Amino acid sequence: MIVDDITLPTGLKIGGEWRHTGRADIPVYNPANESLLTSIASADSQDAKDAIDAASRGFAEWRKTSPRHRSEVLRRAYHLMQERKETIARIITLEEGKTLNEARGEVNYASEFFRWFADQVVQMNDALSSAPNGDKAIMVTHHPVGVAYLVTPWNFPAAMATRKIAPALAAGCSVILKPATETPLTALYVAALLTEAGVPDDAISVLPSKSARSISEVMFADERVRKVSFTGSTEVGRVLLHNAAERVVNSSMELGGNAPLLVLDDADFDTAVEQTLVAKIRNAGESCIAANRIYVARQHYQAFSEALAAKMGALIMGDGTQDGVDIGPLVNRDTQKKVASLVDDAVAKGANLLTGGVQPSGAGYFYPPTVLNDIPENADIRYTEIFGPVAVIIPFDDEQAAIDAANNTIFGLAAYVMSSDAAHAVSVAKQLEAGVVGINKGVISDPAAPFGGMKQSGLGREGGYVGINEFTETQYIGLDWPGCSQ
Ligand code: NAD
């Protein structure tokens, strides 16, 4: 497949080898019109074993490089992604469906992980201190954890990959990336770009596969794989944690969400509507931090519902490559069906439909921006991660009851608070069981901030000052020498 005169890789990247190029195992579709973009090779168990061999050679080479060298390579990767922004954005839009504008935003976000960790790796502090009783020195050092197995979802095919690859490479690990089958092209392109930036061939492999389970079996069975970092559903995360338990593999999990958004009685109305729209509609609602349940103080409830419905109803839905389109298709037929059935269930049980709700006919996995209020207690949509452009608005009279309802879920990834009183907003934010909270802001992801979930939304954090720690082992060396204690 050719995008902007660039022929995209369709083989597996196993160390320095592009394997099975031209073997057409995994069809990749354009969700805007269901046309076949291209087909790519699917990795099997032998490919996975070979990728581990390559990654272990890559680890031996890469771990010996200086932090300064790794920093410079990552910075080159940042610049290359910026230079190729249009091409990468087009690939993302073609295989994932988001609009080109959003895809450009994703490339910015994704590339920033390289710049952020380029800065971090030269500032990692090993430490030397004295034991309080004076009998030794305490030396603390950090080592790369080893070969890292990275598994990513389709919704942000560039950013979910670089959020793992950047800290892993910064720490000195080698990586094997298994992207989602819906969006392998972005991952393969970014891997090729990384070798251009100076990452040794063997330090990065990419294994799209129709049989994720058999790739995982090989990874978890091999002593040389020391790390799994997964982003995806809680359901699959649980399976990988079970697999990891056997050899006690170091695990980071970025899992599903069910984000509440609270519009408090002292919220600025226009800000609340505008930021709720952003928190809901980014990537057509296919985001783990999308506002899933919108709790609104009774005094704003009706006006807020109508204002949000007016804004959502005015969005232009269409092929994301076209100018003027605000919202693209969903990623595939299953996602479209799931969203439609959640809305149909709610409406059948008595929810009030303010806009949208009718799946268009014709090609493409489209679902219109939809707003529901007066949601009955027994509607499935109250309890399910929607992953689509559907706003679910629920009134509250008692703020504490709203906070309790917001926390009444196994998930704890993101939450949002709308209030014009900062002290009030922060006190509510602190009561929310969520790893990431936005106050008066619908988009808060930032490479410089730690991102991750509480409860069954995950383990560990990506980005921020702590992101690199997910890929390091801390070693303590107790050190004595003659005269040490004097
Ligand atoms: P998914 O769990 O179905 O798949 C994620 C990835 O796991 C894909 O690459 C898939 O091929 C792979 N996979 C499935 N079974 C596997 C196995 N046994 N071994 C190895 N890999 C396996 O999720 P999805 O549908 O791609 O993405 C949507 C989900 O991801 C949502 O629940 C969303 O909330 C979550 N998500 C979370 C974050 C976060 O940062 N917490 C970010 C994005 C998406």
UniProtKB/TrEMBL annotation:
- The active-site annotation reads 254
Family per record: Belongs to the aldehyde dehydrogenase family.
Q: Does the keyword DNA damage apply?
A: no
Keyword annotations: Oxidoreductase
Q: What is this protein called?
A: NAD-dependent succinate-semialdehyde dehydrogenase
The Aldehyde dehydrogenase domain sits at 20-476
Which residues, if any, are the signal sequence?
none
Q: What Pfam family does this protein match (any one)?
A: Aldedh
Q: Please name the source species.
A: Enterovibrio gelatinilyticus
